[in-house]
Write a structure and sequence with these properties.
31% of the residues lie in helices and 26% in strands. It is α+β, with helices and mostly antiparallel strands. The protein has one domain. Strands 1, 2, 3, 4, 5, 6, 7 and 8 form an 8-stranded antiparallel sheet that branches. A hairpin with a 4-residue loop joins strand 3 and strand 4. The longest helix has 54 residues.
Length: 234
């Protein structure tokens, strides 16, 4: 009778070892593909967030509504505040919008007030926007949106045919505060050309962002806005 030869223990161990090695290599390959997909998705999200941020920045500037007796655009070295028209056709009025980078969050953030209809509401929201970045309340945090991670940012105004720091006195004309006797309940002017005689807008605004490393786009990024004929921009 012919004897049937089977596998030896050593051969079985070698086969099992090879199968384990192939499984490990296959798992590493799948893990690498998964990590690459996650990183690619994160980079895509970063680019979309940056695009949305720059688009919203331009929309805010395009919708600026100048008001007699008060600034419509202000940069104090930390926060950019602006008065703009509401995009809600059903609730026409004004908004106060603020952009800032809070050190603890290391992100560019945007804050927006409720729709405003009176001069008193506008004045209070303007002051509220300045306090928001320093000591945000729970209500403030509900009105802020975090956008992109930043190391730093800077604003420049185009005045007198040159770009300059908004905090410099060159080419500026400070708005005269409204007299205390003015009616506090007077409706705000939603027309973008209202108050042009007391113009506070520069010809252009330059946004310079230093994006944090590790994102899809990092380093310095510059975005220029040019004022149109009626307060809009490009």
């Amino acid at each position: 009778m012919q004897r049937v030869r089977g596998f030896t223990l050593i051969e079985l161990l070698i086969a099992i070892s090879l199968m384990a090695l192939m499984t490990l290599l296959g798992w590493r390959g799948l893990d690498g593909i998964s990590r690459a997909q996650v990183q690619l998705q994160q980079h895509a999200d970063d680019v979309l967030a940056l695009q949305a941020t720059l688009a919203q920045w331009g929309v805010d500037l395009d919708a600026i509504a100048e008001q007699p007796g008060m600034p419509s655009l202000d940069w104090d070295g930390r926060t950019m505040r602006m008065v703009r028209r509401s995009a809600d056709a059903a609730d026409a009025g004004l908004l106060v919008v603020a952009w800032a980078r809070r050190s603890a969050d290391a992100q560019l953030m945007r804050w927006q007030s409720p729709v405003l209809h009176t001069r008193t509401e506008l004045t209070q929201a303007w002051q509220w926007a300045q306090l928001w970045v320093q000591t945000p309340s729970d209500a403030d945090r509900l009105r802020e949106v975090r956008t992109v991670a930043l190391e730093a940012w800077q604003i420049y105004y185009f005045r007198g045919n040159t770009w300059s720091n908004p905090l410099s006195s060159a080419g500026t004309a400070d708005a005269t505060p409204a007299p205390a006797s003015a009616a506090a309940s007077a409706p705000v002017a939603t027309n973008p050309v209202a108050g042009l005689a007391n113009n506070t807008l520069p010809e252009g605004v330059r946004l310079q962002l230093t994006l944090a490393p590790g994102q899809a786009i990092s380093g310095m990024l510059t975005r220029d806005w040019v004022r149109g004929q009626l307060g809009g921009g490009q």
